[in-house]
């Protein structure tokens, strides 16, 4: 069983707001497989910092608009 990451993302919404970009198109632009994009979107995989910046750059969005990390609960 794969443990989900706490990092969440808005990739799916961003893909649709950018001309309904497919997972395969995003994967090609970032240089990864479609399966990697699926895993990131579903929260099963956290991308490297470099890959996160590449994804944000595709959408011309700040990193924190693409990925979010929850605040620690006290």
Any overview of this molecule?
The chain has 74 residues and is mainly alpha-helical. 50% of the residues lie in helices and 5% in strands. The protein has a single domain, classed as 434 Repressor (Amino-terminal Domain) (Orthogonal Bundle). The chain has five helices and two strands. A two-stranded antiparallel sheet has the order 1-2. Helix 2 crosses helix 3. The longest helix is centred in the C-terminal third of the chain and has 10 residues. The relative contact order is 0.23. The mean pLDDT is 92.
Describe the structure concisely.
With about 70 residues, the protein is mainly alpha-helical.
Q: What order do the helices and strands come in, and which of them pair?
A:
Elements: E1 8-9, H1 11-17, H2 23-30, H3 34-41, H4 49-58, H5 63-66, E2 67-68
Antiparallel strand pairs: 1-2
Tags for this model:
74 residues, mainly alpha, 434 Repressor (Amino-terminal Domain), two-stranded antiparallel sheet, 5 helices, globular
Q: Please tell me the total number of domains.
A: 1
CATH topology: 434 Repressor (Amino-terminal Domain)
Number of helices: 5
What proportion strand?
A: 5-15%
H-E string? EHHHHHE
Rg for CA atoms: 12 Å
Helix content: 40-55%
Structural class: mainly alpha
Q: Termini, distance in Å?
A: 28 Å
Reading off the top of the CATH hierarchy, the class is best stated as: Mainly Alpha
Low-confidence stretches: none
Strand order across the biggest sheet? 1-2
How would you sum up the major sheet?
A: 2 strands, antiparallel
CATH architecture: Orthogonal Bundle
Mean pLDDT: 92
The CATH homologous superfamily is termed lambda repressor-like DNA-binding domains
Number of strands: 2
């Amino acid at each position: 069983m794969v443990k989900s990451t706490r990092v969440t993302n808005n990739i799916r919404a961003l893909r649709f707001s950018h001309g309904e970009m497919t997972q395969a198109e995003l994967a090609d632009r970032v240089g990864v497989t479609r399966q990697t994009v699926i895993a990131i979107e579903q929260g099963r995989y956290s991308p490297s910092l470099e890959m996160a910046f590449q994804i944000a750059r595709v959408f011309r969005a700040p990193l924190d608009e693409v990925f979010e990390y929850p605040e620690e609960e006290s």
